[in-house]
């Protein structure tokens, strides 16, 4: 998935080095400083302090770690990730479905049985037709700009444009109200993970046109929308049609959630550290302290309510391989050598918040190959090699490079770091700042892209198949919602991905993706900058909090609550 706004990872809790109470359980603390990892009580309101609003409330449109985490409060999907820290939180379990699906036909056909008793917020039963309709919305040219996996795996005509324009898909069958069958265009043993994507959210047939779900989502989860002022405030309250007996994942302890948007990142840190009033019941929607605040959380009281670990995400700069001088692989390779990655780590807050990236896949991905195709001392770059490559490409005098980035302070600082790096070899970087809430939509539209973009990617499940194909399979390039923002379309790479996907041994498949990482890097479609870490402070009345390995390292919203709902 796309990296969360301020920042899923499939690694063990111990490997993530989640500290303090991040991996704890047990009863609510009676101490003055509550243990954020202790079990939450029922009731009260959790406040979420956020800089930017969600990209979309419509799950066919949104696709980043922050909004995917939010979706689990109001929506249910066929399957979902278990609610637990560490490796247990990457396990796929049935959600609307009774289990993670039954494959047949060599993993090209998948059958799911739906639970009885699930309903939309108006009390209407959820049927297989509702799930089918929700999945088909992924092909709609306007709505289907989110998760790409349904379109990548489910068989569909080349000219299919979703249910509103083209009707239903014959490759998705609903033999009865509680059975749904998917016929795939290529075999995969990972379809249980794919069925956990937001695009597998059910909706009543025919609903959701003209971005209706961005304004009024139809809830199937434990909460529903009470009010929403875009860019300012969002309030969730309990969905009385949701039955706890049908849902073994969501604790749903709070009575409500309140998001406050538009807050300066430094203000969020200040409020959480102080923990006064309602902020004692608050968490951050950014999942990350600002660099300047890290040194302030060293007291025992603040350490008690601090969570930290790796996000499992790779922050990178894309290089648009379809633009001007960037069509020449030598120019792109020169950029690889020219960038001082250590300065981007410094921009992100230093070694406590990031480490230099040497490959596309981040640590924790099974089968990852650690080979650095463009080595340099301490990740500081190799200007001599960069200049040599530019000279060979006839670009010794440099050129202008427009870099898309977000308005967030860390992203702006990273853009300046890249700008200064490329200046060393005569490349003039113009920074183009895009509103955070629309950033992914803009850079995912090829007609609006520039030469490069500062972004990131996080795995949606354990393994290389969720990292490399979405970003670099040229056959998936689309006019909107395009994750392949490098616009790389290389037949050898595409064919190799097909061969790897056909492997039946998961270990061999992951190892092959690890090797493919290096082959892709030789084409220089992106510059991996750094692997990000999380340091997050909660209010002192927060409980049930742990960093989820599935949503950019943020706090898992389906388990968080309050130690004392009356406080």
Describe the protein's architecture and organization:
This protein has 567 residues and is α+β, with helices and mostly antiparallel strands. It is built from 18 helices and 19 strands. The protein has helices spanning 13-16, 65-74, 128-136, 149-153, 163-166, 191-194, 212-215, 265-274, 291-294, 300-304, 329-338, 341-348, 383-392, 409-423, 439-443, 468-472, 491-501, 506-521; strands spanning 45-49, 79-81, 92-94, 102-104, 109-113, 172-176, 179-183, 223-229, 233-238, 256-260, 282-284, 306-319, 354-356, 400-406, 428-434, 452-457, 526-537, 542-543, 561-562. The strands form five sheets. Strands 13-17-12-16-14-15 form a six-stranded mixed β-sheet. The two termini are 36 Å apart. Residues 5-32 have low confidence and may be disordered.
List the keywords.
alpha+beta; 18 helices; globular; six-stranded mixed sheet
- Oligomeric organization of the protein chains: single chain
Approximate helicity band: 10-25%
Strand arrangement, largest sheet? 13-17-12-16-14-15
The share of residues in extended strands comes to 15-25%
How many distinct helices? 18
Query: How does the helix and strand content classify structurally?
Result: alpha+beta
Largest sheet: 6 strands, mixed
Round the mean pLDDT to the nearest integer and report it: 91
Task: Briefly summarize what is shown.
The protein has 567 residues and is α+β, with helices and mostly antiparallel strands.
Topology (SSEs and partners):
Blueprint: H1 13-16, E1 45-49, H2 65-74, E2 79-81, E3 92-94, E4 102-104, E5 109-113, H3 128-136, H4 149-153, H5 163-166, E6 172-176, E7 179-183, H6 191-194, H7 212-215, E8 223-229, E9 233-238, E10 256-260, H8 265-274, E11 282-284, H9 291-294, H10 300-304, E12 306-319, H11 329-338, H12 341-348, E13 354-356, H13 383-392, E14 400-406, H14 409-423, E15 428-434, H15 439-443, E16 452-457, H16 468-472, H17 491-501, H18 506-521, E17 526-537, E18 542-543, E19 561-562
Parallel strand pairs: 1-10, 1-11, 14-15, 14-16
Antiparallel strand pairs: 2-3, 4-5, 5-7, 6-7, 8-9, 9-10, 12-16, 12-17, 13-17, 18-19
Helix pairs in contact: 11-13, 12-14, 17-18
